[in-house]
Amino acid sequence: MMDRSVVAATALLLAVLLAGGPQEAVRAFQIGAPNSNKTCTTLLPRHSDNVPRAGPSPFALSAAQGARGEPLNVTITSRQGFPYKGFILQARAADDLMPIGTFVVHDSQNTQTIACFGEDHNTVTHSNPSEKTSTTFEWTPPVDFNGQVIFNATVVQDYSTFWQGVVAKALIGDPALTGSTAGISTTQPPLTTQRTSTTNAPVTMKPAINYRALSPIYIGCGSSKACFGYPNDCDVDGNCNIMMTSLERGDKYIFELMSTDPRSLYVAIGLSTDQWMGDDLVMECVVINSEVKLFQSWNIRPNPRKGNTRLPTNGNLQLMNYSHVDNTIYCQFERDADTTVNDVRFNLPTSQYYVLLAHGDEVKEDGYGGVGYHFRALFSGQQGFLSDVTGFKAASKLLLRLHGAFMIAAWIGAASIGIVLARYFKQTWTGSQLCGKDQWFAWHRIFMVLVWSLTIAAFVIIFVDLKSWASSSKNHAILGVITTALAFFQPIGAIFRPSPDSRRRPIFNWLHWFVGNSAHILGIVAIFLAGQLPKAELPSWWIWIMVGYVAFHVIMHLMFSVAGCISERQSSKRINSFPLKEMSSSRTPLSSAERRQEAPHACFRKFLLALYIFGILVITIALIVIAVLAPIESNSTITNFQNWISTNRSG
Ligand SMILES: *[C@@H]1O[C@H](CO)[C@@H](O)[C@H](O)[C@H]1NC(C)=O
Ligand SMILES: *[C@@H]1O[C@H](CO)[C@@H](O)[C@H](O)[C@H]1NC(C)=O
Ligand SMILES: *[C@@H]1O[C@H](CO)[C@@H](O)[C@H](O)[C@H]1NC(C)=O
Ligand SMILES: *[C@@H]1O[C@H](CO)[C@@H](O)[C@H](O)[C@H]1NC(C)=O
């Protein structure tokens, strides 16, 4: 008596609350899905003026593999522990909407079978709207059924929130034995399926390193919550330097942030509809007087002024837990699923976002507040739902790395060698020619064409990657653009060079020398500056390798000059003097007879050149390896190793 009136009262209340919702639909929701042909086919609740949620479902189905004609268990679970109220579930053969087999309910209090299309027990649904977190049914396939069965459910969290197409697949019997290919897709060869179902697959097991004992933030990554961190896959390895997690719970989203960098004073997450900074919703956990506080802010579009302003939270954001111990900032907070910030709607269940993570040590105390400089900002490579437990992956840095490698190869490698050849080797290998040109000229041209192509390619690559002017690395970018412009016009000038006998030739020589060397110097300074770009993630000793390169380059130039002087003095004794370097000559240019004259000490010069090329090659390769494999300074490898040792010692 009592029970019934309570149910009736609740139903009435619900009906009133959902004013406008047809009573019948509310009743249907209360007592389970009706067995109408429409519901049986679409698996949608009758109150289908509400559309299913777009994002990945927080509920999951699981089913064991089954033997032919034998029952197997199918379970609906909540991935994140929050309950559902209703569901409808069928088993179907692939490519068919007709339910097959029969269900037996274990929990007859809350669940029931219904007969779709007149076949008994082929569909299960709830029988009351109480909150459930797990429901198991026994399903028996038709006697002769062999192949893949798809369990397909719609799970209702509450009247207006439900997910369609929550599926699990199972193989019944041994499909390899039948001619029927029903449901067996080619991507799922029966052999593999059999193997995984009959063995415990020890091969794929990860070594039992218990990183997760380090921090609870890692628990549930990939199964109940979405995780994203740096370095890549650190959420699996348990060694994140910076990390976020998110999960959907009812009409709230629960976030966690962590930074283990001892320099950090804040750790922040940004939600963005594009992959660039600007117009992003930011939530930041900031250390203030040994406490951690939660704020909301907005990344201003880079034009006209880049920055971050703090915004009121309007009660949409609640700090739930935090800690700041062992240099690790951790915070957990919840945010309303659907909010409007700065006139932009953030509807987390229906929209996909790029996730931006940053940590830094500058918190602005000026009128705007907000967070300042960050030492690392990490963008997800794709946009995704914050409830998608598969998580986020960092954006690829391939293009950035290619840009670095190309510029290093061009300016440290090819340009250095090409310039040395033109300056000191005009009177060497004079006996032979390459493609009708003097050896030095042919090789100079080859190296410079290389510089030109690599530079243009690297320039295009970086603009394709950034899609905009990088304001965070202004000096590097400005130098890079000037270098590229100089490099671009240099060969065009060279093509239209005046003939060697022309009066304007010395002007050309001087200009060619000036533009080439300016480009070289600016290019090298730009590579120096790259060492300071957070994005490049170069080690702090990058600058020392560059200093080493410059020292080597200068010393070798001195030696080439000395060698040149010696041979010039000797040759001026031998014949009437001729200038070794056309451009520095105030006298008439070399006649072709003089040109063919090999200057003395060619052997020594060749030895110096071999030494120089060897040194440049070593430095270039080293720099490219560091730039491409960056960050190699990261101590994650060391930490991994230490953890491994301590785990093994205690285990
Ligand atoms: C699950 O059922 C729905 C409704 O019939 C259908 O649209 C969807 O394609 C099914 N999913 C799979 C994987 O069969
Ligand atoms: C299904 O689960 C129930 C309850 O957990 C158990 O008693 C039963 O043996 C299971 N059936 C199969 C086929 O595994
Ligand atoms: C429902 O489907 C069954 C089987 O396909 C069919 O016999 C029956 O007429 C249908 N009922 C309605 C109301 O369409
Ligand atoms: C906060 O975190 C601590 C430590 O993990 C835990 O014991 C406590 O229950 C948490 N509090 C809340 C409200 O989640």
TrEMBL record:
Belongs to the FRRS1 family. Its main location: membrane. Keywords: Electron transport, Glycoprotein, Iron, Membrane, Signal, Transmembrane, Transmembrane helix, Transport. SMART domains: B561, DoH. Its cofactor is heme b. One of its GO terms (cellular component) is membrane. Coiled coil: none annotated. Gene3D superfamilies: 1.20.120.1770, Reeler domain. The keyword Iron applies. Pfam families: DOMON (PF03351), Reeler (PF02014). It is a multi-pass membrane protein. Residues 238-360 form the DOMON domain. Residues 367-569 form the Cytochrome b561 domain. It is found in: Membrane. This is Ferric-chelate reductase 1. Residues 1-28 form the signal peptide. The chain crosses the membrane at residues 402-425, 446-464, 476-496, 508-529, 541-566, 607-632. Residues 12-189 form the Reelin domain.
